[in-house]
Amino acid sequence: MDTAFDTYASNSNYTVWTFNVRPGLRWSDGTNASAQDLLATYGPNFAFNATYDFPNAAAEVTKEYAINNSAVVFDLNQSDAHWPERLSYMYFTPVYPASSIAKEGAAGTMFDAPAVGPFYISNYTVGSFQMTMLRNPYYKPLPAICQIDVNFVESLSLTANFLQSGTTDLALVEPSNVASILKNPNLLLFDGKELTTQMIQWNVTSYPYNMTQFRQALAFGIDESAIASQANAGYATPAFNAEGTVPQSAALLYNPNQMKYSFNQSQSISLLKSIGITKGSDGFLHYSNGTVVTLTLWTDTDQTPDQTAASLVQTDLQNMGFKVTLFTTTLAGITSNYQANLNNAKNAMILYTTNGGNFGSSFLDVLPGWDQYYLVTAPSNYWEYPPSAQAEYQSNFSAYSATNNVTLERQYTQNIEAISAKYLPMLPLDYSDLLWVANTQRWTGWPNPQTSYVEFGTSTLNRTLIAGLIPSSQASSSSSSITATGSSPSSSTASLSASSSSGTQTSTTSLSTSSLTTQVSATTTGSGQVGINLSLVAAVVVVIVILAIAYGVVRSRRSRTTPAGAAPATT
Description:
The chain is of the alpha+beta class. It contains 17 helices and 22 strands. Helices cover about 25% and strands about 25% of the residues.
């Protein structure tokens, strides 16, 4: 809705909302966007289908109808001051053409649906390792790039080599590779501060995690600073001062008065003792009945920082006297194992990196974690625990939902932060950076590295920025020096020359001058590395990890009855 509709308004008690289609908006197939597209998207054949309506938005609607070809009215059965956010792309789903919804139905992936942005998917089958995107001829200004070729690879750890070799022009990279990448003057780092969260999730209703003191003891017992520096090469901020799930960098929303957790294993042991867990003569921690406290930790193999962090967590907890068994597999494997409860996965700790952190939206910050993050666990009756904490959370969430007063929104958001920091429905280890790297050899017009470069509420690269790239051969001869500073924790600086475009851009269909090639990590397969298309010498190659972009695209097809992590991932 953020792109397709430009204005909305409500009555005084937020029970009647009117949305207006952006004037002159056309889909990439040339048809005009209309009110019927909105009604189809938010109707029983797509978003409001009971299987996919995870926000339960349809339950609020008593009637929806078009008042003309460009305006739709929603009549609600309750006050909802945040109805636009509830329907929006950042949380629920993009708007699709009514014709595509009629063709594909509620379960449709919409890969072949026309788009209103600068590019649309022209050729992709679920499970394939390559995808083609073409420019939207009706998007203004017309992108210089005619085609984007997406190639999927197995792991984020592979992307640095593609960048260094010049066969990749835009990629997500792992933190450990940044230092070597910055030595290459043609590579430019976009450091998205605190856009992801490295976390441990657990079942707060399962013993011993159902005890608040136990969860707090684990928070005190883990050295989050070591994880930020060793697992993420310094491209992360430890979360011990921000366990309320809002990082300190979100200055207007961060609650400085929340409970904080320094690395203090003595404090951890004291908390454990208060709930009857003590260390025996064998050096292990024991429950009051004498049983050794044995914990299971799962992590994914899709991202190297998660494996390193899991090893550090295991060591910290073992040093305290816990027995900790570590299992590693793909995130897709973790999701499957969770559903099957393999090795008691539903009652284990699960460590991985997910989208979120500095959302830039208080609406996302107040939602329960399974609506904010790419969680493996399925929604339950309790986000906070014990029940008294859930009631306190729900009271503040209801108050937030009933107002659009910014001051009150901030107050309720900070209240919810304090609740989460105390009761720890999940344990943020750090707020890690999202690291994109661009190769500037064949394209000019890259944005300033210090500006926002992701789409609001997601970690998906802003496609309008890619649309502004110009092939170097078509740029003017005038050039300027751009220096990217502040990108590295060690204050490394990367310099490069960038030509500025002038005059009218000439359209072309030549792949040698205006094709963008993308590579993506296919984390749900086990078939080995995918071949890279090296024939497009002037192609911009974008390497994206599927997990990183699933938040912004796939959540619209997430079932209400399965864990969020079970959703298929796509671009």
